[in-house]
Design a protein that fits this description.
Two copies of one chain form a homodimer.
Chain A: E1 7-10, H1 24-36, E2 40-41, H2 55-67, H3 84-96, E3 102-104, H4 115-129, E4 136-140, H5 142-145, H6 151-160, E5 165-170, H7 175-185, E6 191-194, H8 200-205, E7 210-212, H9 220-228, H10 235-250, H11 255-266, H12 284-296, H13 304-311
Parallel strand pairs in A: 1-2, 1-7, 3-4, 4-5, 5-6, 6-7
Helix pairs in contact in A: 1-13, 2-3, 3-4, 4-6, 9-10
Chain lengths: ~300, ~300
């Protein structure tokens, strides 16, 4: 059995052109830079504005990354849609590209659905994809999707599909919830990624495998350093530093707009600030505050500008 | 300017084959029966499990209705997706078919989005569709979509696009909310449909134009009768009777499963009971209870069985 993906992954932010279509060139450049920082690519996550993209957009961007020679075994595309049909289409496409796994939202339109209904949904997806290479990471993000992943659901799915159900991303923001899943399933080859690097050290100490975090778009090297050095004496200190950077991006602003603004600043490329409705970019005043705060904490994105130039 | 659609519309339930693909034959038969009962077709609504369908499924089903000769000027397809791209594709398709309008959900993945962001989303859709025949009915259903339609948003959209923004469906279940929109916009050619016939009489008395209601799938004639006779002396009595039927379907069961089970019973066609995950059909026990309760209140679906036979 091949080694499963672990460590630090970024829900890669998606750059847009003036007509709001995805910008494959900037996207590929950013992905290449992230890989150079030991950061895996959880493309098409929440921070990627993936649900603001059509299925065709996602497939075309992934095709572009593969065509550019980026390592698909370092990728975990988001493929969970409200419909089984579209989820299967995106998932099969990712599997055929040799991706390490897929990050799968539950169907998130209907609320108050039963565990039985969610089980049937995921079960149908696994069976329809019908590929032994399939590795699903269940995506628990109740603040956004509202519909969540329960331990009862994981237990049933693991029993039925022990190879396909590979783990989860917990973006509940609630460490107690993560701990429940770790205690229940970490020994059953169920790999738990935390949805924020602020829980990375706690996750590693409790049997987790890493983090898939928004801020990995801008601070990948430092997060990866803690991932590899979590047993070192200065681990708590490293964690505290990561938290400062995360707060600078996420505390006062909508995270997605702030991440893109950060890249716009450090790549010296204003185009990066653009988001798709219903999101809005940072105001000019917010962008200035963010720049000042990042400067104050000594934040840098080494090699980002060069990476953009090389690809362009 | 052509007459706008008014009255009673049904968010048409979508029948599925054993492989969970939509069943165009049964779908068309049900739509034909609804039209024969003076009920318009709000195909691809919440009760249609539309968000459990791929965009291609929706377009193909609508093509089928048009090809079968059903009157598209009596149709208001649901076209609101999380992405602008897919919303525009479905909306343009409906407009080209000569549909009376489209029922448009706000983008419902991201939560806590701003009015400005939602304005940009709808504005972008109107401009991209770029067709003077476009009539958008904004779909307010916070219990499911979470993201709602505010008076501030309607005010801005009406000002910018007075022809394209035609009205709303209010499925908040809160009459006070409906009244706020009626008071603010009914005089501005903004047509308010209530999302449940339990508010039909109140809506007509306050300047509304009808209802788009789940139960219209099974009880269209009686609902339409109140719509035409709301100024009659027995209007309150009619309303009370409608409420009894609605409660039989919606009080104890998930509405979608109960509606489909009801059609399965009265069309003598068990296939109709099927739903797509993440929903689950009624249990055998629930189906029996529903049948008994419907019998007890003297519920009928006149002509349904014959309509199915004619089309098949």
């Amino acid at each position: 059995m091949t080694q499963r993906i672990r460590g630090v992954l970024s829900p890669v932010v998606t750059p847009f052109k003036a007509d709001l279509s995805p910008d494959p060139q900037r996207f590929t450049a950013h992905c290449r830079w992230l890989l150079s920082q030991n950061c895996g690519l959880a493309v098409f996550g929440t921070n990627s504005e993936a649900n603001s993209l059509a299925a065709e957009d996602r497939m075309s961007l992934l095709d572009g990354l593969a065509a550019a020679g980026l390592d698909t075994s370092r990728m975990m595309p988001g493929t969970g849609c409200c419909s089984i049909t579209e989820t299967v289409k995106l998932t099969s496409h990712a599997v055929k590209h040799g991706c390490a796994g897929v990050l799968m939202l539950p169907p998130f339109y209907y609320k108050g659905v039963s565990e039985e209904g969610l089980y049937r949904h995921f079960s149908e997806v696994v069976q329809r994809v019908g590929d032994s290479r399939l590795r699903i990471y269940l995506y628990h993000i109740p603040p956004v999707a509202v519909i969540g992943i329960t331990t009862g659901l994981v237990e049933r799915l693991l029993k039925a599909y022990p190879n396909a159900i590979a783990g989860m991303k917990d973006s509940s923001g609630d460490w107690n919830n993560t701990k429940v899943f770790l205690d229940a399933f970490a020994k059953s080859r169920f790999d738990v990624f935390v949805g924020s690097e602020s829980f990375l050290l706690a996750n590693m100490r409790s049997g987790g495998v890493g983090t898939i975090s928004a801020t990995a778009n801008v601070n990948p090297a430092a997060i990866h350093k803690l991932y590899t050095e979590w047993q070192n004496a200065d681990a708590d200190e490293q964690q505290a530093k990561l938290n400062v950077t995360r707060e600078a991006f996420g505390k006062k602003y909508l995270m997605i707009g702030a991440l893109k603004q950060g890249i716009a600043i450090y790549a010296d490329d204003p185009t990066w600030a653009r988001v798709r409705p219903p999101l809005v970019e940072l105001t000019a005043g917010q962008a200035q505050s963010l720049a000042a705060e990042l400067k104050q904490i000594g934040f840098t994105m080494p090699g980002l500008k060069r990476a953009a130039t090389v690809t362009a």
